[in-house]
Amino acid sequence: MSADRPTWADMTLDDGHHCLSCGAHVHERTIAGYGDNDGNLFACPDCSTPRDLRQGAGRDPDYDLEEDRGQSTASGYHPIFGDSDE
Ligand SMILES: [Zn+2]
User: Fold this and answer.
1) Ligand 1 centre and the CA of 79: distance in Å?
2) Is the pTM of this model over 0.90?
């Protein structure tokens, strides 16, 4: 059987840097790069994609994976015209 391993098992070893979304331990440089100015990181490489992090997912608690992605990926965005055969 698989052991029930809590996500926060390494709390005693870490330096207090965690992803506020998934609780993963993150390096302070990750926070410096993607978190906000208060040292908060709302998304990390464990629970988000590099693209989302670059677009501000780590420093914006209201970052919306669907909306914020859609607005800034113009090159891959295909509008729906809705006029089919009918
Ligand atoms: Zn995370």
Assistant:
1) 31
2) no
Centre of ligand 1 from the C-alpha of residue 58, in Å: 9
Cα radius of gyration (the chain): 18
If we measure between CA atoms, which residue out of 30, 34, 36, 5 comes closest to residue 15?
Answer: 30
Q: What is the pLDDT of residues 2-32, one digit of tens each?
A: 666 666 555 555 567 999 999 999 999 999 9
Q: Where are the domains of the chain?
A: 9-43
66-75: per-residue pLDDT in tens? Answer: 777 655 444 4
Q: From the CA of 67, how far away is ligand 1's center (Å)? A: 19
Q: If you measure from the C-alpha of residue 25 to the centroid of ligand 1, how many angstroms do you get, rounded to a whole number?
A: 8
